[in-house]
Each structure stands twice: as structure tokens, then as C-alpha cells.
Design goal:
The chain has 581 residues and is α+β, with helices and mostly antiparallel strands. The protein is 20% helix and 28% strand. It contains 11 helices and 29 strands. Strands 19-20-21-22-23-29-26-25-24 form a 9-stranded mixed sheet, with helices on one face. It has a 5-stranded antiparallel sheet with strand order 1-18-17-16-15. Helix 2 packs across helix 3. The protein is globular and about 80 Å long. About 13% of the residues have low confidence.
Length: 581
């Protein structure tokens, strides 16, 4: 018996649907579905609630845990880095096949328990890709496996003699291949063990050391072996070793170490993060140089790597409130074989993740991770390539009464209906606006709230801050999916009595002091990538004319400050220089 079979049987005995059970547990119906399919496991708190609601004895869970523990082969803790052996690969392949067969053979659910549906808006598709787009599935099922050790891999016990110079700080540094520090002063050090070094074969055992902050050790670096990260690596410098910090990867900040194997073909990446006790932990490991990308649009980066044995991509993801991690497999070849030659499915982190591209390398569709599937988003005319500097900003859209009329309550990922010839979403509008803010001021925010409507997008650091506490407004025109409006911007600077704004004149790019307002307006116009459509013919006070006769008006938007004249608002261009509203 498994957790999933127990939960499903007990739920049906109680004559509850998945929706009814999910409501009592305060979770989504998809969460219950994944529990019953044994794709995920409830937290201890949820197990206690399940026992109460479904009348399941608490001892049942303990018995299942004991049964699984007895069936589980003891891990080889002496070589944790070598998790992808041939035997394990074979077992994983068998499990993947079994899972695929079981998914195909699973009978249809009862009428009161329908499968999840993907509700995608109908949007116009370019004629040249219509056939390929229509033939491509709305969702791609993925095989999945679970890692319950995620975040704290069993690293084994290491004899200090394996690094004979462990207590000699100078020797450690002589043999270092790389080192860096966590913010609290904990030091990481990647070294080759000289006693194992073979100059002829150019091979070595590589160890990852850590030392606690010197404040806790009386000013001395006290090294400990954290992990034997590899052996038989190529070259005196271990091939093209790469190491550096990462942020916001599955909820962790830490360091990523990537090394080449002896055949100089296989590369693997190890992710290290501090544990609750301050001791570094091995978070997870990925093959073929892991990439970090937000595949499920939750504001947190997932790990994506290529598995040459599939061949295909693997996605490592976590689910809030659930133990361990999930690894989803994307079969690259089988997907592309189903497509016309002029259309290809691939992964490109710089352009937004999993994409469908045409023969001109234009993005036709993007796929995001949803409930164990890659779900197709409708094609749009914009992608991450249009806002590369701010793509990492986490946006939370406010669509309730807190936003008032500033929100039209359209899902931020739906194609907007306002201009049928432009395929754009509110989320893309918001990122385009933040990219413009970055060009104008040189500043960007890590996360913020957004309210969007037909007339533009508004940003605030506060969820209820759209009543006079928004730090940036951007009104689009027809080129960017809005109605036939005159574009406009408004910036709220912290130093101008807006203490809730993250935009500080002291930190922003701005014209120097002593510059007249006219030159300041021209300086800002030259930096605006979207607004700058024509050459400027002249600037007078707070008006700016283009060579084609169009007009921009600042409406007292250039303020004199101790930092020089700064822009707060701009509207235009008005066609033919006529302010008509």
C-alpha cells in the first residue's frame, strides 16, 4: 500500500470528491490529485488532518514509512556525487516506462472528479505557422521522480587523512581550485587532494571544504571536508571548472560548482547552500551544466539540465509545503519528431524557457510547468528578449477591489482583447514598462505589485498601494496592446515626498546638476527605447518636438532638485503637435 492508495480509498469510502477534500484541507484539487497518484506526499500537518477527516489511523502512515524504508536499498554515502550509475539509470528507465504505461492505462475518473483542464484563450495565429500550432498539443505529459533528500543530501563521513593538509591553512590555499564566502563568513574551498594527484594521468580526487566564520574559531580558519565532489576529472585545472553564487534557486541562495569529467564531455553542476545550523549542505546535483530559469512562472528559479541518456531535458522543481523535490523529464526527440521541419521545440533560458520556434527563430509559443505537465501558452509578439534586464523581477498582479479601476481583472497571462492585431499580455506589458523604467533611471526592483487595465500598468511596493502610493505608471498605445491612447509615464521619486517609493535620485542615472530643464528632457528622451521614435527638432521649456512635427509634453514633469533636474512625467507623442486631450 502507498500513501496515494490509502488516501483515495478513504476519500471514496467517505463519499467525498477531490474538490470537497481539498476544500476541507485548504489545498488545491491538483494537490489532492498528485497525492493520490503518488506524485507528491502531504506534509505531516496535512497527514494529521487527513487522519481526522478520513478516519485513517495515524499508525497507517508510520507503517507505510517502515515498509518503504525496509524496501529501500541503503544509500552509498561514501560517493554521493555518483548518483547516476548505469544500474540506477536502467531502473529509472524501467520506472519511467511503467509510469507512462500506467498513465495511458488509467481508467477515466468518475464524473464527480473530472481531470484538470487547460483553459487557453483563442487567439489569432500567423498563417505561416497555423498548421504547426494547431497540431501541437496543449499540454505535454512528463515523467517524474522524487528526491526526498533534496536540500540536505547525505554526504557521508570522510577521514581527514583523505586531505592530508586539512589542518594546514597555507597548504589548503596552495591546492585550491576555487574559494568563496557565504554572507555570514562561512568559507567554501574546492581543492585537489595532493596524495591522490597523478600528473601522468592528469587525474585527482576533488574535495569541497568548508570553514566556519573566524569569529567562532578564534580567528583561525578551521577546515572540514564537506563532500568529495568528483574524481578522475580532466586536466591539472580540472577542465573548465566554473563556480559562482546563485540566488533564488528553488528558494535557496548559495554556490554552484560545475566541472568536466575526464572524457571532457559530461559536465555536472553541484548546488551548495547553508543549512539551518550554518553548515553548508549539498542542495542537489544536475547534469550537463544546470541552467536556472523560472519554468512555472512562480517567481522562483527552477533547475533545468540536459540528460543525454533520454535524450531530453530535466526540470528540478519543489512544491511549497511538500517534502523533497520533483524531477520532470522532457523527451526532446519524441516531441520534435511530431513537428513539421520548420518548427522546433527547444529550451532557451534567455528567451523564456521551453519554446516553440519557427524557421526564422521567432517564438511561436512558450510552455510553462503546471501540475506535472508542460502547458502551452498562446503565441505572443513579445518575449524575454524584449525585456532582458528586468525578467527576474517578481510581479504579483492585483485584480480585486484594492486596485479599483486600475485593473480590468483580466488574467495577466491571457492575450488582451483591446487590439486584435497585437498579441500581448498584461504581464508582458508590465515587463516592457519596467524595462523602460530601467532605461530611464538605471534602477530595477526585485519584486512589486502591479495593477493593469486597458489604459496602462501601475506599480507599487504595497498590495493596497494603488491609491496614491504607486511608484511608476506607464500608459501604452496601440503598438503595445492598449486602446488608442497617448502614451504616458509618471515616476514617483523617494526624495520628492514619496518615502514609499524604491526609486531614489541618489542612486539613479540622471543628468548632472547645472543642466537646464530643456537639456534634461532631451537626455531622458534619448534613453527611452519605446518612446524614441523620431529625431528631436527642438526643445522649449517642457515641450519637445520631433522632426515629424509630433509633440511630447512634460506637464511640469521636470523638477529641480539638489541632484539636478529630474523627470517625473511625460506624455506623447501628440500627432502633428496638437494636444487633443
Amino acid at each position: 500500500m502507498t500513501y496515494g492508495t490509502i488516501i483515495k480509498q478513504a476519500r471514496e469510502d467517505q463519499r467525498l470528491t477531490q474538490e470537497q477534500l481539498a476544500e476541507q484541507l485548504d489545498v488545491s484539487r491538483q494537490a489532492v490529485s498528485k497525492w493520490e497518484a503518488d506524485l507528491s506526499r502531504p506534509t505531516r500537518e496535512k497527514l494529521d488532518r487527513l487522519s481526522e477527516i478520513l478516519d485513517i489511523p495515524a499508525e497507517t502512515w508510520t507503517a507505510i514509512d517502515a515498509e518503504e524504508e525496509a524496501a529501500r536499498r541503503p544509500p552509498d554515502t561514501s560517493r554521493p556525487w555518483k548518483f547516476a550509475t548505469a544500474a540506477l539509470a536502467a531502473v529509472c528507465l524501467i520506472l519511467a516506462v511503467c509510469l507512462a504505461v500506467s498513465l495511458r492505462a488509467k481508467p477515466a475518473p468518475a464524473p464527480e472528479d473530472p481531470p484538470p483542464e487547460v483553459d487557453l484563450p483563442v487567439v489569432p495565429v500567423p498563417e505561416e505557422v497555423e498548421d504547426a500550432y494547431a497540431a501541437f498539443p496543449d499540454a505535454l505529459p512528463l515523467s517524474v521522480r522524487r528526491d526526498f533528500d533534496f536540500g540536505d543530501w547525505t554526504l557521508g563521513e570522510y577521514d581527514p587523512a583523505e586531505v592530508p593538509y586539512l589542518e594546514d591553512g597555507e597548504k589548503v590555499m596552495e591546492n585550491e581550485l576555487w574559494c568563496d564566502w557565504f554572507p555570514d563568513g562561512t568559507r567554501l574551498s574546492l581543492v585537489k587532494a595532493s596524495s591522490y594527484w597523478d600528473q601522468t594521468a592528469a587525474r585527482a580526487n576533488i574535495y569541497l571544504l568548508w570553514a566556519p566564520p573566524v569569529e567562532t574559531t578564534g580567528g583561525e580558519l578551521e577546515y572540514h571536508i564537506l563532500l568529495r565532489i568528483g574524481e578522475d576529472y580532466f586536466g591539472e585545472d580540472c577542465g573548465d571548472l566554473e563556480a559562482g553564487p546563485f540566488e533564488n534557486v528553488l528558494g535557496y541562495d548559495g554556490f554552484k560548482i560545475t566541472m568536466s569529467h575526464a572524457d571532457n564531455f559530461y559536465r555536472d553542476s553541484t548546488y551548495i547552500a547553508p543549512g539551518p545550523d550554518g553548515v553548508p549542505r549539498m542542495m542537489t546535483s544536475s547534469g550537463e551544466t544546470g541552467h536556472e530559469a523560472d519554468i512555472d512562472d512562480d517567481g522562483v528559479l527552477e533547475i533545468v539540465s540536459f540528460n543525454r541518456y533520454l535524450p531530453g531535458w530535466e526540470i528540478i522543481d519543489t512544491t511549497e509545503g511538500e517534502e523533497g523535490s520533483f524531477t520532470y523529464e522532457v523527451d526532446y526527440n519524441s516531441i520534435n519528431k511530431a513537428l513539421p521541419l520548420e518548427v522546433m521545440f527547444d529550451f532557451n533560458p534567455e528567451r523564456g524557457g521551453f519554446l516553440l520556434v519557427d524557421g526564422d527563430n521567432a517564438v511561436v509559443s512558450r510552455y510553462v510547468l503546471r501540475d506535472g505537465e508542460l502547458v502551452r501558452l498562446p503565441p505572443t509578439d513579445f518575449s524575454v528578449a524584449d525585456y532582458p534586464d528586468v525578467a527576474g523581477t517578481k510581479l504579483t498582479f492585483i485584480t480585486d477591489d484594492r486596485a479599483g479601476s486600475l485593473s480590468d481583472k483580466i488574467d495577466p497571462d491571457d492575450i488582451l482583447p483591446y487590439t486584435p492585431d497585437i498579441r500581448i499580455t498584461h504581464r508582458q506589458q508590465a515587463y516592457l514598462a519596467l524595462q523602460e523604467l530601467y532605461h530611464i533611471t538605471g534602477l530595477k526592483v526585485d519584486e512589486c505589485y502591479c495593477a493593469a487595465s486597458e489604459f496602462g500598468v501601475n506599480f507599487s511596493l504595497l498590495p493596497d498601494g494603488f491609491n496614491q502610493r504607486g511608484f511608476f505608471h506607464f500608459g501604452f498605445n496601440t503598438r503595445y496592446g492598449s486602446s488608442d491612447n497617448i502614451p504616458s509615464i509618471h515616476i514617483s521619486w523617494k526624495e520628492l515626498d514619496n518615502d514609499w517609493s524604491p526609486l531614489s535620485l541618489a542612486e539613479a542615472d540622471k543628468p548632472g546638476s547645472g543642466v537646464e530643464k530643456e537639456n534634461a528632457l532631451l537626455w531622458y528622451y534619448d534613453r527611452m527605447k519605446i518612446f524614441s521614435t523620431e529625431s528631436v527638432s527642438r526643445v522649449e521649456f517642457e515641450n519637445l518636438w520631433l522632426e515629424n512635427g509630433d509633440l511630447y509634453v512634460s506637464y511640469d514633469g521636470i523638477k529641480e532638485t539638489e541632484y539636478g533636474p529630474v523627470l517625473t512625467s511625460l506624455t506623447g507623442p501628440y500627432p502633428d503637435g496638437v494636444v487633443n486631450h
